[in-house]
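Hi U.,

Before I forget, here's the chain from the pilot set. I'm dumping it here mostly so it's searchable later in email.
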Amino acid sequence: QVQLVESGGGLVQVGGSLRLSCAPSGTIFSPNFMGWYRQAPGNQRELVATITNGGSTNYADSVKGRFAISRDNAKNTVYLQMNSLKPEDTAVYYCNVRRLSPPSYNYWGQGTQVTVSL
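Structure:
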């Protein structure tokens, strides 16, 4: 069973930056979609950003202009550069990779905590 290994979370002050990374623990067929989601206490999990294998990106309105998603297709790794962080960005961030055609899959990372302090 493939696992997604996330890294880069932590504690940062308001206005600071963090870069999250997510890579599979083993070999996978190229995913169609790679993305990041987040869940704050008491809230539902929400989309942060996604990127297709063609490089098309989609962002939540709340992070547009501050976050940037990218991927390394050779490594099947996805990144999330987070700048100008705000306290409301505090959440557990989860990466997700999906492949629609056989062999299809939908993998989630274990989550990494991002805390933005005043």
